[in-house]
Every structure is written in C-alpha cells, then in structure tokens.
Write a structure and sequence with these properties.
Blueprint (H helix, E strand, L loop, with lengths): L13 H13 L4 E4 L6 H16 L2 E6 L6 H12 L6 E4 L2 H4 L10 H13 L19 H10 L4 H11 L2 E5 L1 H4 L12 E5 L5 H8 L2 E4 H13 L3 H16 L3 E3 L1 H6 L4 H17 L7 H13 L4 E8 L2 E8 L2 H11 L2 E6 L4 H7 L7 E4 L2 H4 L22 H17 L11 H4 L7 H4 L10
Parallel strand pairs: 1-10, 1-11, 2-4, 2-5, 3-4, 5-10
Antiparallel strand pairs: 6-9, 7-8, 8-9
Helix pairs in contact: 1-2, 9-15, 10-11, 10-14, 13-14
The chain binds iron/sulfur cluster.
The site of iron/sulfur cluster has 12 residues, from α5.
C-alpha cells in the first residue's frame, strides 16, 4: 500500500484510514469513512484502492459529485506518477463540458444533446468519429480538451476511450449511478471510491429524476402547431389546462400519464419536429423531446413517484425514483469493492437511509478526535448557505466576510479553510491562498 502513497510520510490517522479501507476491501465489506478535511482521505483511499486493485486485477473508479472535484484525485495521481509509479489514469466529465464547439457549451443540456446527436448523425461534427488520441502523459481536464480538439478529435470520446484501459478513472457520480450513463464501466471489476458520500442519496435522486414544466408544455404545443402536428398539439393543449388546475403535491404515475392522454402521439411528434427543424437548419431541439423523455420514463414501470411543485416556469411535474437507497445499494453491491468517504457523514443515519447487505467496515474520526478541543473554532452562521439556488455574488461575499472575521478572532492561530474558489473570487483582494496555510494536525496553534 505504501508504494501507492504519493507522499514521504503519512499524516496522523492517515495510515490507519488507508489500512481500514484496505481491510474492508479484503473482507468484502463496504467501507464508510468519516474523517475531517485535512486528514488526507483522497491519497489514503487511492493508496488502499490501488493496492487492492493490484491484488485482484481490478480497476479503480473514483467518483466525485461535481466536475471540479475531479481535480483533487487527479493531482494526487499526478504526484504518484511523478514519484515513478506507473499508474494510468483518465477522467470523465459531462459531455457538454468536453465538447470542442465552444458555442454549444452554453446551450441547455437537453438542447446540447440533441445538437450533438444531430451533428454526429449527419456527419457534420468536425471532431467525430474520434481519431486515436493518446497523450504521452495524463493531462489536466482543461488542457486535455484543448489538446484533443486541437488534434481534431472529440475530447469526450477520446476521454472515454482512454478510460477503458486506465487503471484509475476519476468521474462524476453520473457514470456509476445513472441508468442513462453508457454502460461501459464493468462494475463487477471496479473498486469504487465515492467522495462526499454524505450527499450521495440526494445526488442520486437528482441524477435519476426527470421533470417537465407548464412552460415547456406551452412551448411544446407551439412547436407542434407550427410544424403541423395537430393531434399532439390538441393533447398538449388539454395537458396545459389540466396542469393549470392541478395542485402541488404527490400524484400517482398513472394520474401523471393520464394528463397527457396519448403519450405515443407526443413521442412521435417529438421525433418529427426535431427532424423538420434539422432540415430547415435550426437547432434540432424541441421541448417536445423533454416531454417525450418524461413520459417514456414514467412508462418504464413503477420505479418512480411524481411530485407536482411550483416553479418559476409554472407547475413542474418531477418524477423521482421511488427508492434511491435501492439504486445506491444496487451499485455498491455490484462493485468489486466500495469505500464511501466524507468529512461529514452521519454513519448511523446513512445506514438507515441506505441499508447494506453486510455490516460495513466503519472508520469514524470526529473532528474533536482529530483536532484537540479548544484548538478549533466552530462558526455557525445561519445567514449564509451553500444551497445551490441561493448562490451568488452577495452570498459569496457574506461567506468571505465571515471567514475573515473568524480568522481575525484568533490572530495568533493559523487557519485552514477550504471554501470553493468561486466563493472567494468576488471579494476582490481576498484570495483563497490567504486562508490556506501549512498547518498540519499536531502543530501547536
Ligand atoms: S461529438 Fe463531441 S465534439 Fe462533436 S458535437 Fe458531440 S460532444 Fe461536441
């Protein structure tokens, strides 16, 4: 295991964490690791996973929640290679981020997918089919996209090809937890490391949800009328009226489907309208596609429940998986081995939400076991939140001010905080490095 560790020495408890993960893998148990930021979970988990991968000839799939979180494991892997350890690694972000056409990156995702499908289907994408692209050494995501596109090949397709033979693939949750992900990853031969696992159930629910809004139904009806799909337009008109009268709350899949009367007509209209739009040279996307996807998902069977909720686009129907825990446990039990890590994982609660087939191997280090009491300052500020919908310049400034105030309370102490870069950017002179220090556990404060 030490061979796959990218530093000269372990931090306190870091070796124990790596050993616990390796022990869990060897005993066939899922590992739940809760340990504070700064302990070095990423490097420890990679060392354990690579050691086990060598023993059982498997590959490592390191899963992160957001596209930016791929950077940390990639930098640990780069460090390992710099120490002479031959480990082949690749990364996967979503297709739109890696598209060579900069102008397509700004489209809503569904429209982007339709455009990409169309360009490929008609042979109009300059970068598709992909050409062989094998950089001499692994590259950071941005450089990789630039280099692949510069070599005339689709960066996403190239990354997928590299991921097939890599020892470690760093990817977003989507690639393991969505049925829509292309099934190229053989989970039975993969060792999973799931980072930020406290957010896994919510993220999996969101990855597997589909929705449609009143505004989309209105736009879809307009498209159906414009392209002469009279029957579909009539069904959508009826659905629009029914949605206007519907109250927020849960409804059954059958009731949601019955709002659209003839889903088959709408699905056929979606295909036809996209074809006609492509023929006339406009973006080959219609909201009919979103409604069609929504209806197809509901017709797949009883795995979903539907929630009607208010949104800026009028009433939204959102189909969410009935049982997220089944999706999570299904993936974990199909994998060769799995470790779930977090800096704030309530282990007992997590186990209630996601029952596992066997008792897990738990490694739980509360913050006050890692940093002596009196040697840290906890700040709770209810006026700031990292909730996605509340993010914005003012919120980031408020967070930056709060962190600065906390640091100034203890001028003699060193501070380590890890806000997102975007959080500190708007505060002008305040840079992320201002708050980062060389502090390590055990250093007197
Ligand atoms: S094939 Fe690749 S480069 Fe072409 S449109 Fe799709 S994502 Fe973009």
């Amino acid at each position: 295991m030490e061979r796959f560790f990218p530093y000269d020495s372990f931090r306190p408890l870091q070796r124990e964490l790596a050993a616990a993960i390796l022990d869990g893998f060897r005993s066939g148990r899922v590992v739940l690791a809760n340990a504070p930021t700064g302990l070095g979970k990423t490097a420890a988990a990679l060392a354990a996973a690579l050691a086990y991968a060598e023993e059982v000839e498997a590959k490592v799939l390191y899963l992160v929640r957001t596209k930016n979180e791929v950077l940390q494991p990639l930098s640990e892997l780069a460090r390992l290679r710099a120490r002479g350890v031959e480990v082949r690694y690749a990364f996967l972000r979503n297709k739109q981020d890696m598209c060579c056409y900069g102008e397509l990156r700004g489209l809503p995702y569904a429209e982007f997918l339709a455009e990409c499908r169309y360009l490929r289907g008609l042979g109009k994408c300059r970068y598709y089919p992909p050409k062989p692209f094998e950089p001499e050494a692994p590259m950071a995501p941005r450089s990789f996209v630039k280099a692949a596109c510069g070599a005339g090949t689709c960066a996403y397709e190239s990354a997928k090809a590299l991921a097939l033979w890599a020892d470690v693939v760093v990817a977003t949750y989507f690639y393991a937890f969505s049925p829509r992900a292309e099934q190229w990853m053989d989970l039975g031969r993969s060792i999973l490391i799931v980072d930020e696992a406290h957010s896994l159930p919510d993220a999996v629910a969101s990855i597997n949800s589909v929705s449609v809004t009143e505004a989309e139904v209105r736009r879809a009806k307009a498209d159906a009328e414009r392209y002469g799909m009279r029957e579909a337009a009539a069904y959508l008109h009826k659905a629009q009226r029914a949605l206007r009268e519907l109250r927020a709350g849960p409804l059954s899949v059958g009731d949601a489907l019955s709002l659209f009367d003839e889903p088959g007509q709408i699905e056929r209209a979606a295909v036809e309208v996209v074809r006609l739009k492509a023929d006339e040279g406009s973006t080959p996307y219609s909201p009919l596609v979103a409604i069609s996807e929504f209806l197809k998902t509901l017709r797949e069977g009883g795995r979903y429940m539907v929630l009607a909720e208010q949104s800026e686009e009028g009433l939204r129907l959102r189909a969410v998986p009935y049982d997220v825990s089944r999706i999570v446990s299904g993936v974990l039990s199909s994998a060769k081995a799995a470790a779930l890590m977090s800096g704030s994982l309530p282990v007992d609660l997590f186990l209630k939400a996601v029952p596992l087939q066997r008792p897990p191997r738990v490694f739980d280090v509360p913050l006050d076991k890692y940093i002596g009491r009196g040697n840290f300052l906890a700040v709770v500020d209810r006026s700031v939140t990292s909730k996605y919908s509340a993010r914005g310049e003012e919120m980031y400034k408020a967070m930056a001010r709060r962190i600065a105030a906390a640091v100034s309370r203890r001028p003699e102490a060193r501070s380590r905080s890890s806000p997102a870069t975007t959080c500190l950017k708007p505060s002008g002179s305040t840079s992320r490095s201002t708050y980062r220090s060389t502090w390590r556990p055990g250093t007197p404060s």
